[in-house]
Amino acid sequence: MKSKTWLMIILALLVINSCAKRDQLSDLQVDADRNLSLVEARQHFEKVLAATKQPGKIASKAPRAHQHDENREHNHDKQPMWDAFQYRELSSGHQAVLTPLHRQGTYVQISDDKMVKFGFLNYMMMYKDTADNIITEWVQLKPSNKWFEAKTSRKYDGDIIVMNWDGKAQRIFRYEDGKVLNDSKRPKVAKQASITSDEPPGDWGDDAQCQIITFWIRYPGHVCSCADHTWEQRSICTCEQQGGIGPKRSRTVSVTIETCVETPPEGPIDGGEDNGSEGPPGGGR
């Protein structure tokens, strides 16, 4: 009788243990499904973002452009550099895809006499949320001079601006020696450029955190292929089909963007931990 009782207990424990293992495997499967792969990221970008890319006007509380209306499409004309992608572990433990961004002929001004290529400080981060939706963020670095001028690798100093793909700011983080500062330790950001906007001045309030970044964009010139054509060759001229434009010189214009958020949160960006061990997205320099 006792042997039967022990047998029943053992069988019951085996059933319970088996169910627990199935539940654990199920949880692991769900958890693994939230790890975004490069293939998924590229498919999502090409199907959703690249297909719907349209130049848009910079709206009220999105980044604001300085003077040059012809460059209102600035936020939309950027492409991921898939060959340089990395997997990044988020603070949630899940896997994200991070890749530098490229914008043709565009440089970021980092001091009065120094500029770097757009892709050096701009990244695309893609990851899955709890509902399994793919989230795309534009991550922009604004490093301090001491970080940028460092001759050896050092922990990140400066700001990290997290925006949605259209350029509307979601969060701004300030780092000092690799650690994020809370609101009470954030120095006020001094405005460094004249900003024009459709908004009334002072609309952001005293608690807003703002950053100003200047981009320089080079537009190539256009050489008319009809310049030396005779009247008889007019039928093969392409310039008239292009609106009658003639030779046009290349030009470089500046776009100054102000990015503001109302209440920056405390805590690190998703891509790193608040322990000073992480550099900026993409591994920094």
TrEMBL record:
Residues 54-78, 262-285 are annotated as: Disordered. Keywords: Signal. Residues 66-78 have a biased composition (Basic and acidic residues). Residues 1-20 form the signal peptide. The keyword Signal applies. It comes from the Bacteria. This is MORN repeat variant. It comes from Parapedobacter composti. The lineage of its organism: Bacteria, Pseudomonadati, Bacteroidota, Sphingobacteriia, Sphingobacteriales.
